[in-house]
Amino acid sequence: MRETLDLLLRVFPMRSCSAGTFRSAAASGRPCLLGHINKCSAPCVDRVTADEHRQIAADFASFMAGQSNRLQRKLESQMAQASENLEFEKAAVIRDSLVALQQASERNAIVLPDGTDADVIALAEDPLEVAVQIFHIRAGRVRGERAWVADRANDDNSSALIESFILQLYADVDQEAIPAEVIVPIPPSSGDVLAELLSEIKESKVRIKVPKRGAKKTLLDTVAKNAKESLIQHKNKRSSDLTTRNIALEEIQLALGLEAAPLRIECFDISHTQGNEVVASMVVFEDGLPRKSEYRRFIIKTVSGSNDVGAMYEVITRRLGRLVADREDETVDVKRKFSYAPALIVVDGGAGQVAAAWRSLQEFGFTTEIALCGLAKRLEEVWLPEEEFPVILPRTSEGLYLLQR
What we know:
The protein folds into three domains: 2-107, no CATH class; 118-236, Ribonuclease H-like superfamily/Ribonuclease H (Nucleotidyltransferase, domain 5), CATH 3.30.420; 242-404, Nucleotidyltransferase, domain 5 (2-Layer Sandwich), CATH 3.30.420.340. With 405 residues, the protein is α/β, with parallel strands linked by helices. It has helices at residues 2-11, 19-28, 33-36, 50-64, 68-84, 88-107, 158-169, 191-202, 214-240, 242-256, 308-328, 351-364, 398-404, and strands spanning 118-125, 129-138, 141-151, 181-183, 207-209, 264-272, 278-286, 289-290, 296-299, 344-348, 371-375, 381-383, 391-392.
């Protein structure tokens, strides 16, 4: 997008500065850097008149509206006229602008061959947050995009979220801003009613579509991929901040009543493969950051089927058994093996899984050395051993965010 904008500023050198920068340049009589490198026509120092600058902006708007062929013919005519007048330097500048326009047109290729005006909306979500990605398609070309990440304030399903974001997107816009089609991955909760509402605002037919194949489905998949990457980047940025990590560990310490912040956390989850195999996964966090070199997978041997409680007891027992064995073996490198005990074990599940893990901790005598909690399906419910009710952490809690990861 930035490379395309750079190309367009060569062809359409509009001012992009703030009002303050414009006034400063006008007072000094010197244009800014963009003016010096000819990516701004510098109306601040009267290199062009207001009318001429207005025409540059109008040509840019025409290009964004899909009229690149007309602008290309206009530049070709200007270049030919300059050559006839023996203004070769001017002709060379126009030639460079023509090349830049062609390159920008190629970058801004048609994505919908039928020339549709459409907004393509996709989501990437987890139980706590949702990333929204929107491509604005006009005349079949991508003319803009928007993306943001929002907290999930309730338990709305994907259909309800889609409807909510559509209502927010078009709540206070002019009718021209509403496209003929809104492309989404699943129908909104009140799809027909919503389409009628948008049609009334636009005063022409608006369709909400869920494509199953073709160019629109391909484009929707691209938008969905961007949304997923946006959510991942958001989470990585949030979790990598040192201050945020410290706050998260302190919140966990207070919520669970620990004597110190849990600098090493081991998280256990039970999953079922396509066959009958039951697998447990161990994920390790140290100082609030994932330590992927210490991730482990365990094939559950003593239980089968959907007995997640029994599987959790087995994996915790095997983990603690290795902890005891490695501690007793003086040849084991503490930094590389299981002899480094976690400060906190987090199990995926509620009271049942917590009880199973607690029984194992009791059998090995680790109940005072290793803390334990379970994260239930609702994710803001944190279960503690031998407690009747869960601890509820706010959805905005950094500690909850770390546990959820």
